[in-house]
Write a structure and sequence with these properties.
Arc Repressor Mutant, subunit A; 6 helices; single chain; 4-stranded antiparallel sheet
Length: about 150
């Protein structure tokens, strides 16, 4: 029998998405339950693959980096899996998203603040991707809200 996600699980995920450093004790206090129940729920959510990763959102500007999103549209008939496998090997590629709509793939890059370097990286990536029909580039200036649920 497959475990189900309930209202408490969703609340737990929301709290962690705002601050993944909360302790089980703090989570239990906020959700009016025990630390042991939180521990069991966390283990269940991790085993189910609902919680994939605990992470931070850095201020790229203060670190001397630029956050760039590439929207890539592949030509009809081009296989997407080989493209994704190539992109997974790239250190500067931080997120790869399969998409339906204007783009086939959306790629998030974090690169040093150097326009020539950014141009070089984008050109380098585009030569590794067979069958590009169109590519849109967006420079992210600030992440003003980042909520998961």
């Amino acid at each position: 029998m497959r475990a189900k996600i309930d209202k408490i699980d969703i609340q737990l995920i929301k709290l962690l998405s705002k601050n993944s450093r909360l302790t089980y004790k703090e989570l239990a206090e906020r959700l009016n339950t025990t630390r042991q129940r939180i521990s069991r729920r966390m283990e269940k959510l991790e085993k189910m693959g609902v919680i994939k990763k605990y992470t931070v959102i850095p201020d790229f500007d203060r670190l001397g980096y630029v956050y760039v999103i590439l929207g890539i549209t592949l030509k009809p008939g081009v296989q997407i899996e080989p493209v994704i496998e190539k992109l997974k090997k790239e250190d500067d590629v931080k997120i790869i998203e399969r998409a339906i709509g204007a783009h086939s793939i959306v790629i998030h890059l974090v690169v040093p603040k150097d326009m020539k370097g950014i141009e070089r990286k984008i050109n380098e990536l585009s030569t590794k991707i067979d069958g590009i029909d169109k590519m849109d580039i967006t420079f992210i200036t600030d992440i003003v809200k980042f909520d998961i649920l």
